[in-house]
Amino acid sequence: MIRDVAAVTWKEWRELTAAEGRESGLLGLVLFVGLLGLFLPYQVGRSWLSAPWVMLFWIWVPIFLMTTVTADTFAGERERGTLGSLLATRLPDRAILAGKIAAAVTYVWGATLLSVPLSLIAINFKASGPLAYYTPGQLSTVATLALLSSIFGAALGVLVSLRSPTVRHAQQTFSLGVLVAFVFPVFGLQLLPAATKTGLIQALVFGEAGRVALVLAAVFIVLDVLLVTAAMVRFRRGRLLLN
Amino acid sequence: MHRKGPVAYSSCNSALAMTQYAIQTQELTREYSTVRALDRLSLEIPAGSIFGFLGSNGAGKTTTIHLLLGLLRPTAGQAIVLGYDVSTEIDEVRRRTGALLDNAGLYARLGVQDNLEFYGRIWHMPRRERRARSEELLRQFGLWDRRKEPAGRLSFGMKRKLAIARALFHRPDLVFLDEPTAGLDPVSAESLRRSLVELVAQEGVTVFLTTHNVPEAGKVCDQIGILRSGQLLASGSPEELRASAGSNRIVVRGSGFTEEAFTLLALRPEVESAETRGGTLYLCLEPGSSAAPIISLLAGCGVQMEEVVRETTFEDAFLSVLGAEGHQPEPARVARGRFGVVRADEAFALNVPEREGRNLSAGVA
Which of A74, A89, B46, B297: disulfide with A161, CB 3.0–4.6 Å? Predict the structure, then answer.
C-alpha cells in the first residue's frame, strides 16, 4: 500500500514540477512565499512570531494555495483523458486517493514551511534589538497547524475535484467553498453576544497562542478526518468513469 | 486454436494455469438507463491468442473492455478473466492485465520515459528492471531518442505507440487494446501493427483488441468476434468466418475475354458486374448464385481459362455477417484480397483469344 501511495505521489510531484507549465506554477509559489514569508512579517514585525491571530494565517494560506493544486487531481485527469487508464491499473482506490492527497499536502506544506525562515529574515531586517527567532514550540505549532490545514485543503479539494467535470469547475467550486468557510464565521461573529465576541477577539489578539493553537488543531483534526473519510466513501471507480 | 507463442504466466497466477481461456463471459449484459449497450455476451477467448472485437462505433466494444476491467459493473451475467471472477476478484484481474483505453491516457507533461516509469512503479518493478524494460520497449517502438521529451509533444502515432508500450510494460498476461490504430495514417498504422504483432509473439501475451478496421482485424487477429448493437453476431478465426460467409466473387485468370463473352455475361441475371484487368476477369455474382453456368458460358465463348477462384475477403465475411445491403466489391481490393480454396468443379481451361481493359457496361455498349 505504501509503495502504491508513493507511486501516485511521485507521479503527482513530477506533474507539479514538470518543465512544461512550470513558469506559471513557480510564479504562484513565489507570490505565495513572498506574501507569507516576507511582506506580511515585515509589516507586522516581532509580534508575527507570537500573536495568536497569526495562527489564522498559517491555516488560511495553505488552504488558499490548495485551490490550484488539488483542482487538477481528478478533474484534470478526467479532462485530459488519463483517468480511465489510471483506474484500469492495479492501484487500490485508497492508494490513488492517498497518493493524490499526499502529493498536494507535501507540496503546499513544504511551500508554507519555506516561508518560515524568510519571515525571520524579514522581521530581523525591520526590527532593531535582539535577534528574533521562533522557539521550538512556536515552530512546531506553525508546522502542525500548516500541516493540518494542508490536509484539510487537500481533502476538500480532492473531494470537489472528484465531482467536477473540469479543472475550471473544480477551482470555482473550491474557491467558493473556501470563501464561504471563511466569510461565514466573520458574519457569524457579528451575531454573537457582545461579551462573547469581545472575549474571542481578545483571545486571538492578546491571548495565549498555545491555547488558541490547540483549539484550532483540535477543530482541524476533526475536519480532516471527516473530509478524508468522505473522500474515501465518494471515490468509486465505476462512478468516476460514468461521470 | 492458434497460439502465437508461450503464454506468459506470472509465478503467482495459479488460477490462469488452470484454464485454457484468458477470458470467458457468460450472458454478460450492461444497460445504461434505457439503452442496452451489451446484450448477453458469451465469449471464450483462448489464452495466447490475439482476439479482435470488431464492430462499428457504439457497438459495445469499449463497454466490454470496461466491464472486463471492472470499471463498470455488469447489469447481468458473469465474466472470468485469467481465471478470476471480475465481480469479486477484480484486483487479481487488474494485477495481471494491461490496457490501452479509447483515450491513450498519457501524461502530457511527463517525459516519455517517465510515463513508463510511473507504470513500472505501480507494478512494483525494481528500478533496474524498469530502466531495462523502458529502453527495450522504447527502442522497439522507435521512441528511444525522444525519451526525455514530454509525451504531449509526440505525434499522434507516437503517442499510440507509447500507450501500447505502457500497456505492455509490466509484462501482463492479458492486454486490452481499444482501437490502437484509430486515427493513424496507413503507414503508421501498419508500423504499429507490425510492432504489436512482434511483441505479442515475443512475450506470448493474450491480446483483446477492439477495432472497426476490418482488414486490420483480418491481418492481426487469430480469433475474431463481430459485435453489433451489443450483440455478438459471430466469432471464430478469420478463416472460419471467411469460409462461413461464402463468396459471390469469381476471379478468372486466362485469356480470350471477347466482346461476345461480355455481351452474354451482361444478359445473365446473376451477373452483377464484370471487368478485365491484366489478363484476369473479375466477376461479381448475385449472392447464392452458382458459378458453374457462367464458367460454361465463358468456355462456350472460347475463353481460355488457366484458373478460376471463388474469392472472399475478410471484409466480405464481415459484411456478410452484419447482413449489410448494397455492398459492392471493389476490383482494386479484389486484386489484393486473400484467396479462398479453388474449387475443382469451377476450374476450367479453354482456348479463347485474350481481350483486356473491358468491363461489363463497356462490353454491352
Answer: A74
